[in-house]
Amino acid sequence: MLFALPDDKTLYQALLARDDRFEGLAYVGVKTTGIFCRLTCPARKPKPENCTFFATIGECIEAGFRACKRCHPLAPAAKADPTIAALLQVLEDRPGYRWSEADLVRMGHDLSTVRRAFKRQFGMTFLEMARQKRLREGFETISRGGSVIEAQLDAGFESPSAFRAAFAALLGRPPGSLRKDGLLLADWIPTPIGDMIALSSRTHLHLLEFVGRKALPAELAKLQTMAKGRIGIGQYAPTTQIRAELGVYFSGKSAHFTTPLALQGSEFTRGVWAALQDIPAGETRSYGQIAAQIGRPSASRAVARANGANQIALVIPCHRVIGADGSLTGYGGGLWRKQRLLEIEQQYKNQSPKA
After folding, report:
1. d(CA 258, CA 11)
2. Alpha-carbon span 46 to 270, nearest angstrom
3. Rounded to whole angstroms, how far apart are CA atoms 203 and 179?
4. Could you tell me the pTM of the whole model?
5. Which domains does the chain have, with CATH numbers?
6. Alpha-carbon span 111 to 330, nearest angstrom
7. Which of 13, 22, 47, 53 gives the lowest tally of CB atoms within 10 Å of its CB?
8. Using an 8 Å Cβ cutoff, are 159 and 204 in contact?
9. Looking at residue 272, what is its pLDDT?
10. Alpha-helical segments (H) within 278-347
11. Which long-range contacts (CB under 8 A, 24 or more apart) does 40-49 make?
């Protein structure tokens, strides 16, 4: 397993007690404020349903949370390493600057040392942290219906071309290419474990992925071809429905999804996806078990490929497939998310599938 945190109930009690035994080992993201804290934070305690617990600071940042200004969760790492302290300070001083490896060299830093230090402390590199902080501002503006120029300024990009390039590198398309109307509409959906992008037609959900998934640009390009370039920003009814159902899922009320899905794949692939949807929340299966279920016991590798081709995360629960030895296997949204989803779904283990 990627990490072994106690259950949420234990961590919430530790948060209430400001228990320092979890210092550096667990952090809490508060959905209502978008802030992440140490469990010893002196701030007013959030309700348990508004808390998401993480094992690393990098996971908090990747999930879209900002560091608390009362308990300063980045401070211990900064105190332990002067290099980290200096670079965190320049991020604060110049939040809109487009940092590069050349900048780090000019400042006298060794690239490999910086990379190792940030990876060790935060689970992400300095450049990844800087980019995440800036692009998140732009995404939030676009998701609220703001213009590309407004998004560029909110993200701190002085150059329109730099913002377009950064946006395209992450999503596979520049923001200006997204039409005001379209056969498919894209929208951003915040969740406790990171922002997701949804693409829907008027009748079906075509894509639901975590922002930052490596396969996302290729998936969007495929949908763009299918829609003949007619992709816009906004939401049709399926996006509205999946947004509501995700809220219910993460609040612990139900793991049942009814949003209509557009499934683009071969008959075999669709059969694998149907088998994935048959796995009850709170349970897992191996590739071999899925292969046997669909009547192709020797097709474990083909099942794995079909699993990886899924572009409707959570609803088609490919995160419920693990290795035959019980270990976590690859997950496009990140192994830490797979671990977190499996932990979340333990609360559904004894529920009726349609509860």
Report:
1. 32
2. 42
3. 19
4. 0.64
5. 8-67 (3.40.10.10), 74-171 (1.10.10.60), 178-262 (3.30.160.70), 267-348 (1.10.10.10)
6. 28
7. 47
8. no
9. 95
10. 287-293, 300-308, 335-344
11. 40/71, 41/15, 41/68, 41/70, 41/71, 42/18, 42/70, 42/71, 43/68, 43/70, 43/71, 45/15, 45/16, 48/8, 48/9, 48/12, 49/251, 49/252
pLDDT digits (tens, 9 = 90+) for 132-190: 666 666 766 765 667 777 777 666 666 677 676 766 665 556 776 666 667 888 877 87
Which residues are within 8 A (CB) of 269 and not within 5 positions of it... i.e. 6 or more apart?
306, 309
- The dihedral built from the CA positions of residue 11, 14, 15 and 21, taken in this order, carries a sign that is negative
The predicted structure's pLDDT at residue 2: 38
Residue 245, amino acid: E
Does residue 51 have an active-site annotation?
A: no
One-letter identity of residue 281: A
In whole angstroms, what is the distance from residue 150 CA to residue 271 CA?
Answer: 44
Can you list the residues of the chain whose pLDDT is less than 50?
1-3, 355
Catalytic residue among 37, 41, 51, 318: 318
